[in-house]
Amino acid sequence: MIQQKIKELARQYAAEFIAVRHHLHAHPELSYQEFETSKFVQEKLAAFGIPFEVKATTGVIGLIKGRNPESRVVALRADMDALPINEENQVTYKSTKPGVMHACGHDVHTTCLLGAAKILAETATEWEGTVKLIFQPGEEKNPGGASLLIKEGVLENPAPSYIFGLHVNPQLEVGKLSFRGGKVMASADEIYITIKGKGGHAAAPHLTTDTILIASQLVVSLQQIISRNNNPLSPSVLSITSFQGGYTTNVIPTEVKLMGTFRAMDEEWRKKAHGLIYKQTKELVEAMGGEVDVLVDVGYPTVYNNEALNAHARKIGEAFMGAENVEETEVRMGAEDFGYYSQLIPGCFFRLGTANKAKGITAGVHTPKFDIDEAAIETGIGMMAALGATARLI
């Protein structure tokens, strides 16, 4: 049985790919700068005998053909970029680049897909169809590497019928997987606001346009967009995360800059909210005597898991791991550019347990101490290979 063989090969190759993860973790690269990572992936695919092409500068697209290669096409995706975080872990594979770290597990994702690729290539005579491997750049930064790859035709020639992606979950114990159908992650848009006015002496505010006061009122006012306009049963978040203005105690500045993020689970509400943000910002600032520049930089769409594909993938996961090791993924207001794929073709974005509370491996993603229990590598390799070899929606 192909699943049993995949499980055995994943166990056999686990140590090899833990070493691959160590290499990737020690050599992180920021979004759209994954040149050495891309080269490493290309070298591995070549060694496995897998043909590939490069798209979006650093993206790598591999193709594995099984029996009757035109009978089905499934895509497997992994992201490759790291974050601008200084690693605090004291491990042999610690980042060699100060200020850059694989703090979101993309080294794990890339490793799992490489391991799955090796297994799928070795077992190609035992499964049907074609598997497209997508090693994607720039998940962490707009406009998102997924959008760039789609523009360059990653979902064409051959066109996959569906796509799978995994993500580490440091709240889920190692040896477990989680799935959820429908909306699982939010859209993400960036907000940039610059408030301008006549500055002056803080002791004579009547001779100025108080940009600090205007900005403070605006921060509070913007929250009403969510609380008074959005359906409370539909999750949505607007957070102002940066307030930059002023440089001393007795001067009202001529300019204040605000930055923040807007998240939503409903695309129709998302579009409506953009208009409300522009309207409320301009009208409030101008009513208080200031001028304003506002930009809502539209980012990633919601991640929507096709219900039928998710149920199918979950059954494969239960058969592979045991039903007791498969859980329900919680809804998150975090964002992922996997949403670009799942808006176009059926997608399933699932979670890989990487925590080990007994060993103290619990740090969250995007933190300086994030790490994983590396037993998760075997699980991730095997599950991605099993999906590539056996996933088939009728």
Distance between the termini: 20 Å
Number of domains: 2
Main β-sheet, spatial strand arrangement: 1-2-4-3-5-16-6-15
* CATH class categorisation of the largest domain: Alpha Beta
Instruction: Supply Rg.
Output: 23 Å
What's the CATH architecture of the largest domain?
Answer: 3-Layer(aba) Sandwich
Structural class by SSE content: alpha/beta
Helix content: 25-40%
- Can you count the helices? 9
Note down, in words, how this protein is organized.
- 35% of the residues lie in helices and 25% in strands.
- It is α/β, with parallel strands linked by helices.
- It has two domains: 274 residues, Zn peptidases (Aminopeptidase, 3-Layer(aba) Sandwich); 110 residues, Alpha-Beta Plaits (2-Layer Sandwich), CATH 3.30.70.360.
- The strands form four sheets. Strands 1-2-4-3-5-16-6-15 form an eight-stranded mixed beta sheet, with helices on both faces. A four-stranded antiparallel beta sheet has the order 10-12-8-13, covered by helices on one side.
- The longest helix is centred in the N-terminal third of the chain and has 25 residues.
- It is elongated.
